Automatic annotation (TrEMBL):
<dbReference type="GO" id="GO:0009086">
    <property type="term" value="P:methionine biosynthetic process"/>
</dbReference>
<comment type="subunit">
    <text>Homodimer.</text>
</comment>
<keyword id="KW-0368">Histidine biosynthesis</keyword>
<dbReference type="GO" id="GO:0000105">
    <property type="term" value="P:L-histidine biosynthetic process"/>
</dbReference>
<keyword id="KW-0028">Amino-acid biosynthesis</keyword>
<dbReference type="GO" id="GO:0006164">
    <property type="term" value="P:purine nucleotide biosynthetic process"/>
</dbReference>
<dbReference type="InterPro" id="IPR020630">
    <property type="entry name" value="THF_DH/CycHdrlase_cat_dom"/>
</dbReference>
<dbReference type="GO" id="GO:0004488">
    <property type="term" value="F:methylenetetrahydrofolate dehydrogenase (NADP+) activity"/>
</dbReference>
<keyword id="KW-0511">Multifunctional enzyme</keyword>
<dbReference type="InterPro" id="IPR020867">
    <property type="entry name" value="THF_DH/CycHdrlase_CS"/>
</dbReference>
<keyword id="KW-0378">Hydrolase</keyword>
<keyword id="KW-0486">Methionine biosynthesis</keyword>
<keyword id="KW-0521">NADP</keyword>
<dbReference type="InterPro" id="IPR000672">
    <property type="entry name" value="THF_DH/CycHdrlase"/>
</dbReference>
<keyword id="KW-0560">Oxidoreductase</keyword>
<dbReference type="Pfam" id="PF00763">
    <property type="entry name" value="THF_DHG_CYH"/>
</dbReference>
<comment type="similarity">
    <text>Belongs to the tetrahydrofolate dehydrogenase/cyclohydrolase family.</text>
</comment>
Amino acid sequence: MATILDGKAVSAHVKAEVKREVEALAKQGVSVSLAVILVGDDPASHTYVRNKEKACAEAGIRSKTYRLPADTTEQALLALVETLNADKAVNGILCQLPLPKGLNEAAVIAAVSPEKDVDAFHAVNVGRIMLGNYAFLPCTPAGIVELLDYYRIDPAGKRCVVIGRSNIVGKPMAMLLLHRDATVTVCHSKTEDLAAITKTADILVAAVGKPRFVTADMVKPGAVVIDVGMDRDENGKLCGDVDFAAVEPKAACITPVPGGVGPMTIATLLKNTVTAAKLQNGLR
Ligand code: GUN
């Protein structure tokens, strides 16, 4: 029986800490606020944004969501970002991805002021992560590292395999594990003999976006398995990138879906928003 890495429980600790910090800032006359932009009607994005709003409210962070129709023009979207960049009452700006077809994600990411970029997607913040001197943590990877820390799983010297090379998860995940002295391999859709590589992993991070992609034969006995997926199976049921039922008996530790990585991502977002407020008020 694997240890279940309980992101819901661990994120509750992180969120309680954030709440204390927000209260302490309020006593100094500093309020903390997040602006969320949600374009179109992707149901998963709407769920994620609702979860982010709820978490902000619980932590005492003011949040405002700008829900825009799918046919919003790039010009209108960039104009909103500029308005939020200039608004001193807004500390953090997050544009939920993916954007509807026809909107240029790179242009929107580049438009967000790096000082308010609580996703850490802007090139300036990505570069800082690469160099290891970052203020904003990449939300999902940092949430995963915090979860590992909580369970005293130390990546140092370990073989870590990340499946997926997205800018949001795979690449920054590899970088954070490297900062923790892991030996990191990044696999992707063109990787040959994937299972041979994943089977070497002491820590395996699946960020593929395909339901139950990681099967038991791809996992080393006693591995730590981190599932970033939020997928729907053929019956429309929520599941991860890992075949949990088959992999769990083989793993030493595993994250569930839901209740694993997702809540940790949101907890990191809250931390970043507090960091933004502090930086903008000269408190760090
Ligand atoms: N879409 C999936 N994950 C994320 C995330 O962490 N931030 C944003 N903005 N969009 C996402």
